[in-house]
Amino acid sequence: MDKVIVTGGAGFIGSHTCVELMAAGMAPVIVDDLRNSEERVLGGLEKITGKKPVIHRIDCTDQAALDRVFAAEKPGSVIHFAADKAVGESVADPLKYYHNNVGSLATLLRVMHRHRVNDIVFSSSCTVYGDSKDLPVTEASASGQAASPYGYTKVVCEQMLRDVSAADPHLRAVMLRYFNPIGAHPSGQIGELPIGVPNNLVPFITQTAAGIREKLTVHGDDYPTRDGSCIRDYIHVVDLAKAHVAALRWLSGRKAPVCEVFNLGTGQGNTVLEAVRTFEEVNGVKVPYVIGPRRPGDVVAMYADTTKSREVLGWKTELTLADALRDAWHWQQALGKG
Ligand code: UD1
Predict the structure, then answer these.
(1) Residues 224-235 pLDDT 10s
(2) Is the peptide bond before 94 cis (omega within 30 degrees of 0)?
């Protein structure tokens, strides 16, 4: 069976991708030191797939340790999720972000080269488009102006892959620009596990509905949108996970060198207030909220043109915003107040 190294495989998107890889007949090998996730994810994966996940608990900037994993597992390809992702923290501690996010990709590419592993799928973000006026954004829209050090680590990692791919005739790389991943596995066994007070909208909504938070603050209702709140392209994490399987399959059929970028979104923009209302309707629970000031760094609107991923990867989303918000609530209920 084709072994795939999945760095950050115990994380939110990584764990859902492991499920889809197994469903597609591939064998994920998780590389994750669990610094941003919990043991329970591994139990959840076992319940869903019926198999104990294979995991190596190492830091992806540790070249010697990565080297040992590659020597032992002999993988055919890599999906690189492991990264820090808190925008505010990246402003306060940028070196942590450059060290972990940029450092881990550089280390991984070295190790891949040594072991002649040529296929990599990289987790990028729509943050590389910055405050784009070009909506919906296409892969050809201007990129490179991020709003935070976190965003710049994605810009730098994309450039690193382009540079390495230009120098290495064997490398085959896909860079996936995620829009706003939300939701959880419909089984309620795995989902997002925010540490402390959530920064992202949907975990804040579910924790408010569960009574863990008193109320949601909607960051601004004076944007030039249909109801004044920001617009984002919310994509169900299961749809997103399936795109990684499509990307690996597409890569394996290509002749090197390949370095392609794809948007992963639904193509639909929804406002913050629409997300709150949809959550309330689909789950029959109230989300108390107040309108607060704009959050620094937020862009007015961001949603994807998905033509390229549809036409080239043969992938498109199948689940709706309502599906994602229902699954997110189901997961929150499974977590309880803890
Ligand atoms: C941000 C990053 C994105 C990153 C993602 C994952 C930017 C511009 N975007 O996405 O690159 O991949 O986080 O961490 O750096 N909101 C509220 N109240 C809340 C929380 C959020 O109103 O309590 C609003 C925000 O103002 C925004 C929307 O909800 O309009 C989505 O916010 P969030 O879930 O944090 O994601 P992004 O900021 O879009």
Answers:
(1) 999 999 999 999
(2) no
Does 85 have pLDDT greater than 90? yes
Cα(111) to centroid(ligand 1), Å: 33
Q: Which amino acid is at 204?
A: F
Task: Report strand pairing: 231-232 vs 172-178.
Answer: unpaired
How many angstroms separate the CA atoms of 30 and 14, rounded? Answer: 9
Residue nearest to atom 21 of ligand 1 (CA): 201
Going through the chain in order, the beta strands assigned E by DSSP cover: 3-7, 27-31, 54-56, 77-80, 119-125, 172-178, 180-182, 216-219, 231-232, 234-236, 258-264, 270-271, 289-292
Question: Under the phi-then-psi rule, with left for phi > 0, alpha for psi from -120 to 50, and beta for the rest, what region is 336?
Answer: left
Say which residue the tokens 């992202």 belong to.
200
Q: Take atom 22 of ligand 1 and give the residue whose Cα is closest.
A: 218
Cβ of 198 less than 6 Å from ligand 1? no
Token pair belonging to 323: 């599906």
**Cα Rg, the chain, nearest whole Å:** 19
Of 185, 310, 207, the C-alpha closest to 250 is 310
What pLDDT, on the 0 to 100 scale, is given for residue 1? Answer: 65
Check: CB of residue 178 under 8 Å from CB of residue 240: yes
The token duo for 285 is: 């629970």
Distance 135 CA to ligand 1 centre (A): 18
SS3 120: strand
How many Å lie between the centroid of ligand 1 and the Cα of residue 232? 8
What residue owns the CA closest to ligand 1's atom 10? 180
